[in-house]
Amino acid sequence: LKCVVANPLDVSRFLMEFYGVTRSVRKAKDAKDNTREFGAKIINFEQLLELGKSANLGADDQHIVQIVDWLLQYAFEQRASDIHLEPRREISNVRFRIDGVMHKTFELPTPVMSGVTARIKVL
Is residue 61 part of a domain? Predict the structure, then answer.
């Protein structure tokens, strides 16, 4: 048993960030049909991925732009020095190098990854 001291605000932020993902994945799957309506608000990363799976994805697609913006912002918040995009046949990986150590951060469907790659080339 190792005792540590932490700021309560940091603890609650990390709990929401890491354990809230499970809830948001379920909500994204449930809301998949609802988010296709025009003017629907995209709340989280998982909803963007669900929309991206079913659409024609180009570098200027609104959802791809939001995914790339979100990835860059999250990498900055995590103090990542590198972002590695690893294309695979079905599910592609996004890894961040944080403090010299590679961390697998996200899995993206391959069609979404190709749109993300195209968007980064445009930047």
Answer: yes
Whole-angstrom CA distances from 25 to 8, 18, 44, 60 are 26, 12, 9, 25
Query: How many whole angstroms separate alpha carbon 110 and alpha carbon 86?
Result: 10
Residues 6+ apart with CB under 8 A from 122: 59, 60
The number of distinct structural domains making up the chain is 1
3 part of a folded domain: no
Predicted TM-score (pTM) of this structure = 0.56
Bridge partner residues of 102 (DSSP): 97
Q: Round to whole Å and give the CA distance between 85 and 117.
A: 8
pLDDT in tens, 9-60: 877 777 766 555 444 434 443 443 444 443 445 556 666 666 656 555 677 8
